[in-house]
Design brief:
Elements (H helix, E strand, L loop, with lengths): L3 H6 L2 H6 L16 E2 L2 E2 L9 E5 L3 H13 L3 E5 L2 H9 L5 E7 L8 H11 L5 E5 L6 H4 L5 E4 L4 H22 L1
Parallel strand pairs: 3-4, 3-5, 5-6, 6-7
Antiparallel strand pairs: 1-2
């Protein structure tokens, strides 16, 4: 579902105002619309691939569904090790990462994000955690976002969209 802008952002300010986590609202990451075999707006259709790393299966499924409904292509994994394997794959086309912090085994979400930034210094990173938020300032990569569990799914969509928009705006400014 690519029409997340109206659905997700309508009423979002009201919902987020009751939460502890401030989120700056911007337009969601815009993807070209396709009608049949035609691309509207004259843009080439590009998938926006998000790597989602979460070791709690029920949460993984919820987060994956929310991201897919927002129009993202999601590669969901249950460990930091699997996330790193996908990041290092030669054919990797990951545009952003959403990662838990604490996994049963190493590497942690902090490590996954650092490895992602070694591969792509501008990789958008959203951390999701129930207990590691206080460590974000010292352990998190720059220009990332931390969302504390529990949260509403719209916060996740807004966070990754904001980082992708910032990256796209930066690239457009350089052209």
């Amino acid at each position: 579902m690519t029409r997340c802008g109206a659905n997700i952002l309508s009423g979002l300010t009201r919902n987020l105002s009751r939460r502890r986590i401030p989120v700056t609202l911007r337009e969601p990451f815009a993807k070209p619309r396709v009608h049949g075999n035609h691309i509207l707006g004259g843009h080439a259709l590009e998938s926006v691939n998000i790597l989602l790393a979460e070791d709690e299966t029920l949460l993984l499924l919820d987060f994956e569904d929310a991201l897919k409904e927002a129009g993202f292509v999601v590669l969901a994994v249950t460990s930091g090790k699997k996330a790193v394997e996908h990041l290092k794959a030669a054919e990797s086309s990951i545009a952003g990462i959403v990662t838990d912090i604490r996994f049963a085994e190493s590497p942690s979400g902090w490590d996954v994000a650092r490895i992602a930034r070694e591969i792509d210094p501008e990789m958008p990173v959203v951390y999701i955690s129930g207990d590691s938020a206080p460590d974000w300032a010292s352990q998190g990569v720059p220009k990332s976002i931390m969302i504390e569990k529990p949260f509403v799914m719209s916060q996740l969509i807004v966070a990754i969209s904001q980082l992708l928009n910032d990256r796209t705006a930066g690239a457009a400014a350089l052209e």
